[in-house]
Amino acid sequence: MQYIIAPSILNANYYDIKNDINSLRESNIEILHLDVMDGIFVNNISYGIPFIKSLRENINDMTFDTHLMIVKPERYIDRFIDVGSDIITVHFEATENIELCIKMVKDRNKKIGISIKPDTDEKKIYNYLHKIDLVLVMSVYPGFGGQKFIEDTYVKINNIKNFIDKNNLKVDIEVDGGINIHNIKNIKDSGANIFVVGSSIFKGNIKKNILDIKNSMRC
Ligand code: DX5
Ligand code: ZN
């Protein structure tokens, strides 16, 4: 199993993003987690298509993991792929057309993820797991970086992992929100293999923070 740190640049320095990206690259980071918020699905607005486009025009050695916290994501999936997303994750709660979202992403040969908010029962997405590449389990209420990890998430991850293994599926489990050096090992042991980390990386020295996170994931 490959364990991957996916930095969320939501709390990066947008004015000096090149510098932050270089620090990630020097730490052998291969995935960027891109949080897109519309002010309706979540109570915050972040960045969107032009920002991701200019990142892609300047970064060709990283996977773009685009987390769409927007209502009716099917309206914009193609455009987020056009500007360079490799993985598109939509929220189960944000669309009545989850099958369409899966098809749109698959038709473009990209990876599709489904995300669930902390209050959503994980069993609701079991029927789709054989069709998708990853499940994104939110371990905070989506909208803001820097929140506290919700402890109930461990059980959720474990249930999803058991279902995946029992059915011989090949689906990544990505966890997003409140991950730090104190909880990453437990999150990994619950069955997750991709860890979205925002403030624990971007507060202070990026390279040191990544090293600390990688070390605490192993021990
Ligand atoms: C929250 C976002 C997360 C968040 C992670 O809505 O989806 O990706 O920015 O940041 P931290 O690690 O600070 O919780
Ligand atoms: Zn996210």
Notes on the structure:
The protein is an alpha/beta fold and 219 residues long. It contains 8 helices and 8 strands. An 8-stranded parallel beta sheet has the order 1-8-7-6-5-4-3-2. Helix 6 crosses helix 8. It is globular, with a radius of gyration of 16 Å. Residues 8, 33, 35, 67, 176, 196 line the site of zinc ion.
Blueprint (SSEs and pairs):
Elements: E1 4-7, H1 17-26, E2 31-37, H2 49-58, E3 63-69, H3 77-82, E4 87-91, H4 98-107, E5 111-116, E6 134-138, H5 153-166, E7 172-176, H6 184-190, E8 194-197, H7 199-202, H8 206-218
Parallel strand pairs: 1-8, 2-3, 3-4, 4-5, 5-6, 6-7, 7-8
Helix pairs in contact: 6-8
Bound molecules: D-xylitol-5-phosphate (DX5) and zinc ion.
CATH architecture: Alpha-Beta Barrel
Structural class: alpha/beta
Query: How would a crystallographer describe the biggest sheet?
Result: 8 strands, parallel
- Low-confidence regions: none
Strand order across the largest sheet: 1-8-7-6-5-4-3-2
Strand content range: 15-25%
Question: Cα-atom Rg, whole angstroms?
Answer: 16 Å
Write down the overall mean pLDDT.
Answer: 98
Tell me the number of structural domains. 1
Shape: globular
Percent helix: 25-40%
Per the CATH scheme, the topology name is TIM Barrel
What is the H/E order?
EHEHEHEHEEHEHEHH
What's the total number of strands?
8
